[in-house]
């Protein structure tokens, strides 16, 4: 009987710890369902196959047309038979579903099944991501994860692309780091970078906090794990299908300023210097570098060390603001880190309004560009109010986070006396290096 009791006790403890997360999982499932229903005119109607209706019904997705555009309907293997314009993590998802979809791959039913299977995977990634975000926030703030589960912008954009998969991996990496499992954190981060490029930005905050605390070994382990995992999934494709593999990187380098980016506004309005297409890459790198330099100075000079989530938010926001493309679904990247950095509902709600306006504005702008459809859309000037609306609201949130770093008494996360719950080895670590400006 004693042995039985020893087995039951850990299981009952595990169940007790899991119970508070069940409602969050259900809310995340509700968010996933609402996102699926939002695509109703496309998924259950004819809008996907109509260049106008998919915009006027606001149900566009990349997933369905890419079944044909990436030649999956012809049985072509990503990278090997056709140069897919996505990192290998997404290419792997495409290939997995291509192999298991039955019947004639050239039919509309096959494309719809490809979408449905992808949605199931993304819904799982959303639920997992919400639970990991709640674990990162801690018992006192786990309900902050509802912002991720049910954010209006998430419901509108969840199934445009494969971003939720990268989110789950990135949040998993930070959760592993918070539990001081550095190798696992590195592996998950490397896989996240191999799926979408943005998690690469999180290495900067880890480096800066390692510099300030002197915790170099954990950082080195995570970096090695990230590099190793990225190489494991990329090198085989590089060796046997290099031309197909490099398509994503060549495309990213060569693409012009695109919809959503402030650079697109500057070019469309022919602003001098900043609107010059020949200077786009240089200006993008320099502006991102300026943001990162400012974040580095802030990290190394602040009286109290910034929290990891604050720096992850700032670097990711800087990446989005300076990128030459800013698709509607990129909001998914930022939601969990914005909330972990500063769970204050007023600026987040303002940002959600701006993101929702952008979501509707981009499709109305695109339909208005089509010949004969100008009466259905909006003008460029109206569209650009949405471009700047979300950029300005993100800058406002960044300013509040900077204030919280400079004045820790304003940081709601630290008001209960905690240092950095999600910081792992950085939590309550003494400073080893700090720059003094005065």
From TrEMBL:
Cellular location(s): Cell membrane
Superkingdom of source: Bacteria
Keyword Protein biosynthesis: no
Molecular function per GO: hexosyltransferase activity
InterPro entries, sorted: GT87, UCP010361
A Pfam family the protein falls into: GT87
Transmembrane segments: 21-38, 117-138, 182-211, 223-242, 282-301, 308-328, 348-369, 381-402
Entry keyword Transmembrane: yes
Signal peptide: none
Primary site of residence: membrane
Keywords: Cell membrane, Membrane, Transferase, Transmembrane, Transmembrane helix
A Gene Ontology term for the protein's cellular component: plasma membrane
Topological type in the membrane: Multi-pass membrane protein
Recorded family membership: Belongs to the glycosyltransferase 87 family.
Descriptive protein name: Membrane protein
């Amino acid at each position: 009987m004693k042995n039985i009791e020893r087995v039951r006790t850990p299981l009952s403890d595990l169940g007790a710890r899991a119970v508070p997360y069940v409602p969050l999982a259900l809310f995340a499932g509700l968010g996933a369902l609402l996102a699926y229903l939002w695509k109703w005119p496309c998924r259950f109607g004819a809008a996907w196959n109509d260049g106008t209706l998919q915009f006027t019904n606001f149900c566009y997705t990349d997933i369905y047309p890419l079944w044909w555009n990436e030649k999956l309907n012809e049985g072509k293997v990503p990278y090997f038979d056709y140069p897919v314009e996505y990192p290998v993590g997404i290419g792997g998802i495409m290939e997995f579903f291509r192999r298991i979809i039955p019947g004639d791959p050239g039919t509309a039913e096959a494309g719809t099944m490809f979408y449905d299977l992808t949605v199931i995977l993304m819904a799982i990634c959303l639920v997992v991501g919400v639970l990991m975000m709640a674990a990162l926030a801690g018992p006192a703030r786990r309900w902050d994860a509802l912002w991720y589960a049910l954010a209006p912008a998430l419901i509108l954009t969840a199934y445009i692309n494969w971003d939720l998969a990268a989110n789950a991996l990135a949040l998993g990496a930070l959760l592993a780091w918070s539990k001081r499992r550095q190798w696992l954190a590195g592996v998950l981060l490397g896989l996240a970078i191999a799926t979408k490029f943005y998690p690469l930005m999180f290495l900067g905050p880890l480096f800066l906090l390692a510099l300030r605390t002197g915790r170099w070994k954990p950082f080195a382990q995570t970096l090695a794990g990230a590099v190793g995992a990225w190489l494991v999934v990329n090198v085989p494709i590089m060796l046997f299908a290099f031309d197909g593999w490099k398509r994503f990187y060549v495309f990213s380098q060569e693409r012009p300023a695109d919809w959503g980016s402030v650079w697109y506004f500057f070019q469309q309005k022919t602003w001098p210097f900043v609107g010059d297409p020949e200077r786009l890459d240089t200006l993008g790198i320099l502006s991102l570098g300026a943001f990162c330099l400012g974040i580095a100075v802030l990290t190394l000079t602040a009286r109290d060390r910034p929290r990891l989530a604050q720096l992850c938010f700032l670097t990711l926001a800087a990446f989005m603001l300076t990128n030459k493309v800013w698709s509607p679904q990129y909001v998914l990247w930022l939601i969990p880190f914005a909330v972990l950095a500063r769970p204050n509902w007023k600026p987040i709600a303002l940002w959600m309004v701006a993101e929702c306006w952008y979501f509707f504005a981009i499709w109305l702008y695109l339909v208005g560009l089509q010949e004969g459809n100008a009466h259905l859309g909006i003008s460029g000037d109206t569209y650009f109010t949405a471009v700047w609306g979300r950029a300005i609201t993100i800058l406002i949130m960044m300013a509040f986070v900077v204030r919280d770093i400079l004045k820790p008494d304003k940081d709601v996360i630290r008001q209960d006396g905690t240092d950095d719950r999600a910081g792992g080895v950085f939590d309550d670590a003494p400073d080893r290096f700090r720059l003094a400006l005065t």
